[in-house]
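Issue 218. Parser rejects a valid record. Input:
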Amino acid sequence: MKIALTIMIVIAIALTVTALIIMAGKGDKLIAGYNMTSPRTRKLYHPKRVRMVVGIYLIIIALMLAAMTLLLSDNDLGLTAIVAFPVVAFVMTLIALLLANSWARKH
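Output the parser choked on:
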């Protein structure tokens, strides 16, 4: 069990580092969908805002993963973490998609 918890912490750290790289403007190729669009479509979005949305989303997911790791180490709260993580991740994904297609889009 300790190996699994360690792996989850390593993944949370990797997500945080990835978020920082994206937010610094050096990781546009890491943003799924954005890097594959045509230059014409990319002009419809503010690149800094897209980076901000994706970066904050990744940091929140990393924090949730770290919190879930701590909750899983406590046997009483493990089930709560297993149920809460997918629900919160789904809600965060919806919020990130809405922000990326509204706030990050040029008007």
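Fixed in the parser; the record now loads. The mean pLDDT is 89.
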